[in-house]
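Sorry to interrupt, but I need a hand with the structure work. Can you supply me with one protein entry, sequence and fold together? No commentary is needed, just the two lines. Leave the record below and I will have a look.
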Amino acid sequence: MNSPAKTAPLTTSAQAPPLEAALPGIRPDDPTRRAGPETALVPPRTTRRAPAPRLRALDGLRLLAALMVAAYHYGGRDGEISEAWGTSPRQQFPTLHEWFAYGCLGVQVFFVISGFVICMSGWGRPLRSFFVSRATRLLPAYWAAVILVTAVFALPVVAYEAVSPSDALVNLTMLQQPLGVDRVLGVCWTLWAEVRFYALFALCVVLPGATRQRVIMFCACWTLAAVIARSADEPLLDVVLMPEYAPFFIGGIGLYLVHRDRRDAYAWGIVAVSWLIGQHYAVRGLWHAPNPDFFSYRTSFGIVLVVTLGFVAVAAIALGRLNRINWPWLTVAGALTYPFYLVHEHLGWVVIQALHRDAGLPSAATFALAILSMLLVAWLLYRYVEKPFTPRLRGVLDRSR
């Protein structure tokens, strides 16, 4: 090994900046930095970005949003789930179905959380590392869920029709939505929105390097462009800019800026504007006049309330108000959220039909057991798919240049 390079003694004077400022990545407590009159630096074998402290309350909120969506799919609407129950959920849950109908807003809460998390994970990270982190987070569980649901629906005892083999293969790309291909997973439309958000954030923020000014400009430009796209009624702009969902992603980004500096007036302005526009789109898309042909009893006030509570919950986490909620099991809950979200809808139909129509269990017991069984499937996917294959995929992508 070459002899260590000699550097000038550390000083706190204005004329000489600290060594760690001159050499990014070397921290004062770094084991490669040796104390002495002449500081010797041993370059680390690998340069890895220090992980941000885990916000366990955010994991809990993520699981709560997934359970909201599951409640909507199992008891808050008609469709295939009525075939699983044998009757409409209105008959199965005469009172609760009105509450379950609001569960679809868990998706908007997810998008706010996603904006927060993606801004946090992309800050100070090079583009390649950002891509690897997103790919390894999404793909292993997604591929396993597509294969699992396709295989279950292909069983002769399952009454639901599976997609064609060709369409199932296209689903592995996560691009079935824009290609107009039948979906294996009903919830994957939200992943298409997430992928577009990742692409916008990567190109506009991660690639040039995340800074407060750049993130603020990104939020402002995306908000204005999304509004223009809506007024222009141009399908391509709608696909790229996602006017209906952009306020929730942008609101989450603004809340991460608040997390970094709670006195940042620009960040609070981003959050306020995003909430105002987001509640408008939520009411516009999810409310309609009472009609017996529609299975929906959502009020505009209820929709605004749920959207507001979602923003408030993430804001409380950003401000540290929920730091006491630091139970270790929430980390596991956060890990189960994504595989649970992927499989709960379609496999839930099969479980509900088996427990309620075939085994004769009451509706409440069937509902609870369906949730628990999907959490079990999610744990199996986490334990036997994500844990072993995520680091392997990361290793493959890290070695590919």
Observations:
- Residues 1-47 have pLDDT under 50 and may be disordered.
- Strands lie at 33-34, 40-41.
- The CA atoms of residues 56 and 327 lie 7 Å apart.
- The radius of gyration is 24 Å.
